[in-house]
Amino acid sequence: MTTNSTASAAAGTAASPADGGAHVRLEGLSRAFGTTRALDQLSLDIAPGELVALLGPSGCGKTTALRILAGFESADSGAVQVDGRDISRVPAARRDMGMVFQSYSLFPNMTALENVGFGLRMRGKGSADRNQRAAELLDMVGLSAQARQHPHQLSGGQQQRVALARALAIEPRVLLLDEPLSALDAKVRLQLREQIRSVQQRLRTTTLFVTHDQEEALSMADRVGVMREGRLEQIAEPAELYARPATAFVAEFVGTMNRIPGQLDGEQATALGSTVPVQGDIAGLAGEVDVLVRPEGLDLAAQPGGNGIVTHRTFLGATTRVSVLLSGDVEVKVDKPSHEAAALTPGTSVQVALDGSPVLAAARS
């Protein structure tokens, strides 16, 4: 179907403008469904040509934000702007946006070519023009050979590529992707997310992508916004979001994070016998805390009488994730190069230490 670096609860700063695409701004959006507040003063800037992913658990408000931008829902307060124009009251069919759903939503009685050209047909384009445009889009998504096939003759990944081509055929100012890959198997998801990103970068279409899959968000987006209870916890480029999460929620939602008992003294934390700087929000924290550190932020070496015992290993290719049981029944995961982890068999006594990098602190769980 088609329709015409860091912030806690405010808009993120948009990236440099691209050559094409529209500038989108969501300003102070709030939306409640009964007693449930889906959005709470959400503000977000998306630069022309930028792909922004909204990431978060079910019920965090990410899909509501997308549907308000599309015009399928109305906000209780706030505004939606495209290139500086308030479109909050513009009907969905007149917003000039393309949308790709999780469920493909293709017309079963139409061929792939006819599906892609449908939006152009509704806009009065002649048969020759719309077929040429549809053929170009199918070629772009690698489906020229399937142009005359109907949806039931296509795989799920092929159907989703047709849906993408259909959304792009009308040359929308904004592309909206609502969990478009979640119904596909892992191999097809990987292939399709690379293709979506490639097409989006080629066309420079401003894009909002909603997903609950952190790997999708981090691999595809220029910036990722992590949402919680209707608010943006943080929005940043993927590398910054992973390396410098602003809050404990972001740290634990994006990637793997260890919680290790420690002590907080001002802006420093002590854990595993080391004292290191603390980053992120520590308001209201003092004394006993959990120190949050990623698997690559820990040092690990075999040592008789060390502070932990290896319980198992997970081979990840060049890296092996080693699980270690510390005193007090605290389990941590440590990433090591696989050739170094080969000798760290279950039962090995090891010494685990912080590597000296800044950590996050959270209330003791």
Can you offer a commentary on this structure?
A hairpin with a 2-residue loop joins strand 13 and strand 14 (about 275). Strands 1-7-8-9-4-10-11 form a 7-stranded mixed beta sheet, with helices on both faces. It has a 5-stranded antiparallel beta sheet with strand order 14-13-12-15-21. The chain has a 5-stranded antiparallel beta sheet with strand order 16-20-17-18-19. Mean pLDDT is about 90; it is low at about 1-20. The longest helix has 18 residues, at about 185-205. The chain has 2 domains: about 1-95 and about 170-245, 3-Layer(aba) Sandwich (Rossmann fold); about 255-365, Beta Barrel (OB fold (Dihydrolipoamide Acetyltransferase, E2P)), CATH 2.40.50.100. The protein is globular and about 80 Å long. Helices cover about 25% and strands about 35% of the residues. It has helices spanning about 60-70, 110-120, 125-140, 155-170, 185-205, 215-220, 240-245, 250-255, 340; strands at about 1-5, 25-35, 35-45, 50-55, 75-80, 85, 95-100, 175-180, 205-210, 225-230, 230-235, 260-265, 270, 275, 285-295, 300, 310-315, 320-325, 330-335, 350-355, 360-365. By secondary structure, the chain is of the alpha+beta class. It has 9 helices and 21 strands. Helix 2 (about 110-120) packs across helix 3 (about 125-140), helix 3 (about 125-140) crosses helix 4 (about 155-170) and helix 4 (about 155-170) packs parallel to helix 5.
